[in-house]
Amino acid sequence: MNNKEFISEVAGKIATTPQQCQKMVNELADTLASVLEMDNEVVVAGLGSFETRQKKERVMVNPSTGKKMLVPPKVVINFKMSSTYKSKIN
Amino acid sequence: MAKGKITLQMLSEMMANNSGRSKSSAESFVRMFFTTVKEALQNDNIIKIKGFGTFKLVVVSARESINVNTGERVNIAGYNKITFTPDKTLKDRVNKAFAQFDTMVLDDEDISIVSSSEDTANEEAKIVPLMEEKAPVAEKKDEPVSEEPPVAEEPAKVEETHVVEEVTAEETPAEEAPVVEEKEEPAPKDKHTPSPLRSTTSEGESKKAEAGSESAQRKKRTWMIVCVVLFVIGLALGLIAALSSGNKEAVAEQTNVNKTDSIVMTPEQKAEQAARDSIAQLFEAAKDYEQVEGGDMLIAGTRTYRKITPSHNLTRYCMQIYGTKKVLPYVMKFNNLKSEYVPVGKIVKFPILIDNNDKNK
Q1: Which residues contact B245 (CB under 8 A, 6 or more apart)?
Q2: Is the pTM above the cut of 0.90?
Q3: CATH topology classification for A3-84
Q4: Closest CA in chain A for residue B109
Q5: Strand partners, B59
Q6: Domain that holds residue B241
Q7: Which residues of A, range 17-46, sit inside 8 Å of B by Cβ?
């Protein structure tokens, strides 16, 4: 399902225009980011949870140059399925 | 680690506040959003949402593993799972703290940075200082570099002259060789031709070696001679001044003499003077920073950076860096912190601290 389809699907269900719906998606993403920035966990009942994870620095070999590179540490977003959902799709 | 659990309701409330929409409309949107995601995943494998991210249905194949306690082989069945990859904007927002770091080429010598997971908390923090501390090191290098060129010129010159000698020495035996072949006494002369070659090269090498050590020795000797000569001149002036004039003048000139004596400094005195100068520089630098009122110490620059982790908090880093917790108020002031409890993930800068009482030394 691409973006267009998804937006029109949601817009139809809550009776707004697709443009408004896309705006709301962006707002949701912004709010989610603010929440995750503060090192919190967002739980979506029946789906899973969004949390942040810290990745440590690591050494990697650049496949094109063959040189050893140092990848800096970073913070990433991790989505974890809930057990109910897990059993539902299996 | 203060991981608060945010529910959909709270999320939609925050969204309503941020966007200015009504709480009810925000909530209905958020619920419908995730419901649609769930439904869509029943029919499709990939759902791409612009501005948010991509939800994917992934099939994980069965694999063999080992029961940790018993050591038996265990079969883990295949299953479906949902993965989420955030959109660029979302990713960058969350990674704000580390945005300034880039992957860099690693020279072989730096491999010691990356080590086992136990030490990685410290190692993580080390990357930041590794990059920042290169600046002050670069500044310090300016001083010794100026001393090196004049010394470097001497051995270079010496080497050049010897290279010239070697070349001329090698040419002459080369000329001798064809001459020797024409004559009817090849045997003894053959011995002669290689040997001059060998001797000149060995002589050249030994001369080079001698030149190297000689230049080093010459360096030391000229230094010593200069020091001694200046010292002697200073003493001589002092004696002349003392003998030629009366008491008052002698005292005055002796104080002058003391000043001239101080020009002739031993290397130890020079080091002390350099230390005093650098402290003076730090006091100058301290004027640029907000200080702790009534504090015994002054903040005079940034010393290093550390990132707060679940295992290392502000107090622990203070002990690591300064050896005491008493510096906490200075670190807090330097980072505009209201409390010593800093959230995990924040990068804190640690100041260069100088004793306020050193001013008059």
Answers
A1: B253
A2: no
A3: HU Protein; Chain A (4.10.520)
A4: A68
A5: B80
A6: 158-263
A7: 21-22, 24-46
